[in-house]
Every structure is written in C-alpha cells, then in structure tokens.
C-alpha cells in the first residue's frame, strides 16, 4: 500500500490560501501539547512515587514487634528491612522517571528550535506571495483599464476620420497614441508582475514541499519518541513490581522459617517461673482451730452449747485453794466461777 505524505495532500487551489500549511501547523501544535501533557503526567507520577517512598520509609522506622522474640521477631525484622528497601526502590523509580521527563523536555526544545526556523521562512514566503499576488492583480486591473481606454480612443478617432476639423483629428490621434503607449506599458508591468509572481510561487512550492517533509519527519520522531517514552515508563513500573516482589519474597521465606512451637518453647524456657502450682487454701475453723485442707466450707450455724457441770454443793464450798476456773477446752466449761 502506498504511503501517504504531507507534501502530497496539503495544497489549495487558491494561491494565497494557507489552509494546508495551517492544518499541518495545527497538527504540530497539538503534538506539542501532547508532549506537554505526557511530561506533566510523568512529573506527577514521579511526585507520587517520591511521596509514597518517603511515607513508606517513615513507616519502616516505626516500632513493629519490638517485644516479640525468637523466629517471629526475626521475620518481623526482615519485614521492616525489606519495607525500607521497597521504599528506596520507589525513590529510585521516581528519580528514573524524572530523568525520562528531562529527555522529553530536551526533545521538545530541539523540535521547537527546528520548527521556528522553518516557520519563519514560510511566514516570509507567505507574505511575499500575498503581496506579489495583490500587486499582480492590481497591475492586471490597470492593464485591462488601459486596454479599454485604448479601444475607446481608437473608436473616437475612427468615428472622426472624415471630419474637416484638423485640430480635432490631431487631438484624437494624439489621445489614441497615448492610450496605446499606456496600454503597452500596463501590459509590460502586468507581464513583469506575473513573471515575478511565478518565480515566487515556484520558490514557495519548493519551500512548502520541503517544510511538509520536515514537519512530517518531526511528527514521526515525536510519535516514536512518545511511544518509546511511555513504553520505558511502563517497563520501569514493571521492574518496580518485580523488585518489590523479590523483596517481599525474602519476607515470605523468613516467615516460612517462623516456627510457632519453637517460639512457644523459647518463651517458656526464657521466662518460666516454676513448675509447681500453689497448694489449695485450707479451711480453718474459728472455734476449734482445726484446719481442713479439703472439703466444703463450714456451716455458719452457731456451735452447739456445752452442757454445764452439776451445781456445786454449798456445804463443800471453801474459798481457800479449792476455787478454780474452767477452760474452753474443758468438757464441763462454764462461765460461772465455782
């Protein structure tokens, strides 16, 4: 299939029209705007990556499993360390993105300078072409008017050929001769302007075709560069995913080494306080002082009353050394002294 090119499809029948050229320039301006949008997008993405990296780095410094021990503590330490490494990789990603943005900025500036020279040349040619075309059209009008004046003078002279007024005839002949000279001069100027316009047109045709080729080449370079830039951007993101997964895989391998039973036994051996439980609390009877290590608690009913001994015989009562006090432990305990 035949390729389409700018130089073959952006012409106009009107010599003074710049519609084709203006369409190409608009396309280039749209492409320039696209470059700026991609540039801004990548700058914003780099800023996001940088903020994320800094937040992730701050997070990796926070306490996580400080009081943990043994295999789980080692896994948590690896988890924090690899989180820090992930944050640093995102920071590097942000820097790589900014380097790509710098390349895009340089590319834009290079194309801008090249376009500027071509556009200045084309603008000058357009002005020259428009000016010469106007001059040519004005000379054409003058030429046509002079030709009509010559025809009118000739007709007047022919109508008065047989007149006896010699002065009138000479005057008409003089006007006809002057009109002829004027028409010939106008014809000469008109032809000269047409030739000049033809040369300017030829120069413009060459420059327009050349500008179309240059602009087409710039468009090809722009599309290729943007495509490769976005491709590189996606490769960077994919590489970041792979890097992050490799770092996370180190954490997963560490977690695989985490032994639950080993951690439990490690804690027991390190912090054990004894292997004998406390003895049960014995029950102590308030009244008897007896202790019972087991059994139900005592009843709250009052202790049974102790029978008193028989009343003493008054006849046998002497107050010398026979008086005594009974004790609680005595079977015949009594509050009455006898």
UniProtKB/TrEMBL annotation:
The keyword Ribosomal protein does not apply. Keywords: Coiled coil. This is Proline-serine-threonine phosphatase interacting protein 2. It comes from Poecilia reticulata. It holds the Pfam family FCH. Residues 4-263 form the F-BAR domain. One of its GO terms (molecular function) is actin filament binding. The lineage of its organism: Eukaryota, Metazoa, Chordata, Craniata, Vertebrata. Gene3D superfamilies: Arfaptin homology (AH) domain/BAR domain (1.20.1270.60). PANTHER family: PROLINE-SERINE-THREONINE PHOSPHATASE INTERACTING PROTEIN 1 (PTHR23065), PROLINE-SERINE-THREONINE PHOSPHATASE-INTERACTING PROTEIN 2 (PTHR23065:SF9).
